[in-house]
Amino acid sequence: MAEVDPQPDRFRDLMVDDEPGFEEVLTCVFGVQRHEARTYLTLLDQPGSTVAELATTLDRDRSNVNRSLSTLREKGLATRERRLLDGGGHVYQYTATPLDDARELMHNTLDEWAAYVHERIDEFGLDP
User: Fold this and answer.
1) Which ranges carry the Transcription regulator TrmB N-terminal domain (predicted)?
2) Which of 9, 16, 27, 127 is in the most buried spot, having the most CB atoms within 10 Å?
């Protein structure tokens, strides 16, 4: 599983929001930026997209989209496949991790974070 580090301040933001949306939960749990969450959601709707196609859809610079995709791949939220072009060369196509798998990743990440916090709580008062 990808290494994740949920940030407590983001959890506070979720707790004060009456009904946080999927994008807010995604940014909190995986520590990604909103534009990275939007990239993930776009990939869900448009699997097999290239950087150029995503840049057009998201109205963002290709280099920024590339960085977002790198982050999503590091977090286990996207995959990349190389497609050979008829005229020679290749292009990379990106696909979002299926929503059910992303949900499972979120649950696992929160479980790991909660276990870490429980360990810290159990250690309180043990140091002389």
Assistant:
1) 27-96
2) 27
